[in-house]
Amino acid sequence: LQKLIHLLQATDDPLIQEQALITLSNSAAFSVNQDIIRNLDGLSIIGGMLSDCVPKVKEKALNALNNLSMSIKNQEEIQVYIMQVCRNIESAPLNSDLQLAGLRLLTNMSVTSHYHHKMINSIPCFLHLLSEGTERTQIQVFKVLVNLSANPAMTRHLLKAQV
Questions:
Q1: What integer is the mean pLDDT of 112-120?
Q2: So what's the pLDDT on residue 162?
Q3: Has residue 163 got a pLDDT over 80?
Q4: How the protein sits in the membrane (predicted)?
Q5: What CATH code is assigned to 1-79?
Q6: Is pTM beyond 0.90 here?
Q7: How far apart are CA 116 and CA 113, in angstroms?
Q8: Euclidean distance between CA atoms 22 and 61, whole angstroms
Q9: b/e 48-72 (16+ beta carbons within 10 angstroms → b)
Q10: 33, 104, 112, 140 - which has most CB atoms within 10 Å?
Q11: How confident is the model at residue 113 (pLDDT cuts 50, 70, 90)?
Q12: Which residue stretches of 30-122 are H helix?
């Protein structure tokens, strides 16, 4: 895991970055690896990949963060990327794998109400995706919206959102 994280930092090759991110994502299926990746500063390194200009690298980084977000301790670190994830969702091509990966991460990050306030400005985007997206996109958006709607503090924001 340490070598993969160092590899991510050391290379600019998108194909190598993708493969390293896929391997880290798969490794994150085990809770012990989630802790190791966090302790090696892997979350910030993977999070830094969200600003990469290559869509596939962003997508793989989102998938890795999604798997890593199963830990509450990891969520505390991942939450700093929520607004960037929202921007990636808004700017990604409609129904793209990149958009879906971002929505899956937001689904996990919105299970508790701790980070809902960071998603408020993206509610109009979510509603737009709900009306324009394919069934796969709509299902992911519904999951995020259901999580947000479970928080009474979000009611006003959900109801007044302009689409």
A1: 96
A2: 82
A3: no
A4: Single-pass membrane protein
A5: 1.25.10.10
A6: yes
A7: 5
A8: 8
A9: ebbebeebebbbbbbbbbbbbbebe
A10: 140
A11: very high
A12: 31-39, 42-48, 55-68, 72-78, 82-91, 97-109
Burial grade of 109 (CB within 10 A; 0-12, 13-18, 19 or more): buried
Domain boundaries of the chain, sorted by first residue: 1-79, 80-162
List, for residues 92-109, the tens digit of each pLDDT value: 999 999 999 999 999 999
Maximal CA-CA distance, the chain: 48
* Residues whose CB is less than 8 angstroms from the CB of residue 111 and which lie 6 or more positions away in sequence, other chains included: 147
- Do 121 and 159 touch, CB atoms closer than 8 A? no
**Nearest CA among 8, 81, 66, 79 for reference residue 34:** 66
Distance CA 1, CA 93 (A): 32
Q: Any residues with CB less than 8 A from the CB of 103 and at least 6 apart, and which? A: 89, 129, 137, 140, 141, 143, 144
